[in-house]
Amino acid sequence: MATLSTFDVLALRREFPILQQQVNGKPLAFLDSGASSQKPRCVIEALDDYYRRYNANVHRGVYKLSEEATFAYERARGKVARFIGASSKREVIFTRNTTEAINLVAYAWGGANIRAGDRILLTMMEHHSNIVPWQMLAQRTGATLDYIGIDAEGRLCLDDLEQKLTPGVKLLAVTQQSNVLGTINPVALLAERAHAVGAKILIDGAQSVPHMPVDVRALGCDFLAFSGHKMCGPTGIGVLWARREILEAMPPFLGGGSMIEVVDLESSTYAGVPARFEAGTPAIGEAIALGEACDFLAGIGMDSIFQHEQELLGHALDRLASVEGLHIIGPHTTEQRGAALSFTLEGVHPHDVAAILDGEGVAVRAGHHCTQPLHRFYDVPATTRASFYIYNTAEEVDRLAAGLEKARKLFQ
Amino acid sequence: MDDMYREQILEHSKHPHNFGTLEEPSVSREEFNPLCGDRVRMDLQITDGVITDVRFSGRGCAISQASASLLTDELRGMKVEDAKVYRKEDLLELIGIPLAKNPVRLKCALLSLKALKAGLYGVGHIHDDDEEE
After folding, report:
1. What is the predicted ipTM?
2. A24 and chain B: CB distance < 8 Å anywhere?
């Protein structure tokens, strides 16, 4: 396991094999960690080690390999639980990703708790994965959806929250950090308000858990969903955390092996928590590697990671402000803002911006970033997004700015 | 990258030909790329089986706009029967940039052709050949 006593970004970069390459003849500046982060050597090795040395199914065999795999899989659950401050590892359910975690809540909890006429409250800055499952639930149950508005800077309108978060709302589902705006929402406050009207709160932590300290007990939330691959872990593994008593009362999501107790021909009884929500063979190696990623990040320190990204963000906000015709979508200061930076460049379509930056070895994302309602709100079809992580440097921010100048001149 | 932004593409994207809409088009069709939010609408005036006038509108990247601009130049005066079987390879040759290994930008380049075909065949939705890529 790689634990770094101090946060030396250049030393840290050496832990990421993929960053040691050239793209289009230039060193790779990877500024798309908001979509998926790169993986450190220890995570890649954990995955490799599982498949090479002790690959076997979990919770079944009484032989050595299966016992070892089960032990490592369950230990990873404990690592994840500690990483987010859960009071018990039984509150951690492994899913494929954030999307599946939210769908699990929408089907299992939503199916049992949402009725016709109930209201589900979202915000205008949600990712499609925190909109569509609720639309589908509303269509199944006759519940209605409402959205808390945002202001021009991309902050939640708290007045609008007061108007809309009233008795009758059964669930508030909100992102802790917008994947487009970078806005960090006051989720602890939102949890308090939600509970005051008898609503549950689900937090989409896909963009927050990788980047800042997240403690579910301090936040006071009911559900937290996040993905492994955005936090140095592998793809195919994500997490739903929920309070124990909520999980205990929830019916299953998918039916199949591992989630049962006794199966008769007509009906079955279900396993306890968390097995009830993990039907079928899980992503064993990926879960183990996610546990390793949690240790890796904790070893650096989530406070240090957040601080590093704040510094990069501050530098990026300064540099991008000097690019003519560039408009940032989202807050213009680092206050309550993470390091995802979306913008438009006058006269140059985001696809073209991204292609020109790619020519400079700078990888960014272009498009609507799975937030069509948000882009409609700002009346732009698409934006370019640079998102930073632990391994990015100020020099890479400078290369981004230089590439944007090049794009602007080409299309002048 | 430098191959992609050749003079012709930049010129057509900055000053597209046949940009706009027709007052009473015989065929009008808008297609949408959900990956990037780009839209291209094709308006055609058809008289006696011939495309007598054509306009495109919408917003998108330089590749999608230049491609639509080049395609509309081709279409004016073309028989509807020929337009219906206009091949994507022909349009790509016209665009003249290497996109074969770039499925994402290929979708941009072919958005106008998709609108044309969907409009002429009058179908609800045309699947890309490369949808699975």
Report:
1. 0.77
2. yes
**Which listed residue (A42, A221, A294, A370) is catalytic?**
A370
CA-based torsion, B86, B88, B90, B94: positive or negative: positive
Name the residue of chain A whose CA is nearest to B7's CA: A410
- Exposure of A131 in the CB half-sphere (CA atoms within 13 A): 14
Q: Is A45 helix (H, G, I), strand (E, B) or coil?
A: helix
Nearest chain B alpha carbon to A379: B37
HEC-encoded secondary structure of chain B = CCCCCCHHHHHHHHCCCCECCCCCCCEEEEEEECCCCEEEEEEEEEECCEEEEEEEEEECCHHHHHHHHHHHHHHCCCEHHHHHCCCHHHHHHHHCCCCCCCHHHHHHHHHHHHHHHHHHHCCCCCCCCCCCC
Write down the pTM of the prediction.
Answer: 0.91
Per-10-residue mean pLDDT of chain A, 412 residues long, equals: 61 96 94 98 98 93 91 98 97 98 98 98 98 98 98 96 97 98 98 98 98 98 98 98 97 93 91 95 98 98 96 97 96 97 95 94 94 91 95 97 96 87
